[in-house]
Amino acid sequence: MKPRGINRIVLAVRDIEDAKALYSTMLGATFYDASWTGEPFGINVAISWDAGIELCAPRPGRERDSIVSRFLDEHGDGILKIVFDVQDADTAKAQAEKCGLHGMHSVDYSQADIDAHLDGLFKRYKEHFMDSGERCGFAFTFAQIEPK
After folding, report:
1. In which band, very low, low, confident or very high, does the pLDDT at 117 lie, cut at 50, 70 and 90?
2. Which residues contact 130 (CB under 8 A, 6 or more apart)?
3. How far apart are CA 10 and CA 8, in angstroms?
């Protein structure tokens, strides 16, 4: 398996609207609302496919217990995770497991989910979130995302 590069950088931010305005103005980035993906984790999510940026901020009322709250408390706004673009997410996950890393969470969206929530931009969207922070010094995800 060969990597295809970086799909996107995930940034933890306290104010998602302020961050969207900054990166939209600075880079000309276009953001898509993907908060439906972060709702179970207490976060709002906005993704700019053209700029390769994903913004994650605590949902109102979840500032203390969202998945990004501890990161924000310890580091402030900043790089939370790197999403590697891979040809086969399952093979990449298996390789990482051979190195002692473990999957924390996975998503494999149906075409109906992709069409409903991701503007039908893709024919495949699968990700494995790995427990890489301690071993690698940063969190990462393997993404197998194929455009239509």
Report:
1. confident
2. 93, 96, 101, 102, 103, 104, 139, 140, 141, 142
3. 6
Tokens of 90: 């399952």
Q: Residue 88: which H helix or E strand, with range?
A: none
Could you report the per-residue pLDDT of 60-107, keeping only the tens digit for each? 999 999 989 999 999 999 999 999 999 999 999 999 999 999 999 999
**Cα separation, 133 vs 124, whole angstroms:** 27
Asked if residue 57 lies in contact with residue 13, where contact means CB atoms within 8 angstroms, the answer is yes
Taking the whole predicted model, whether its pTM rises above 0.90 is answered as yes
Tell me the torsion sign for CA atoms 21, 23, 28, 34: negative
Q: Where are the domains of the chain?
A: 3-147
What pLDDT sits at residue 53?
97
- Sheet strands (E) in the chain: 3-12, 32-33, 43-48, 53-58, 78-86, 103-108, 122-130, 139-147
- Domain 3-147: what homologous superfamily? 2,3-Dihydroxybiphenyl 1,2-Dioxygenase, domain 1 (3.10.180.10)
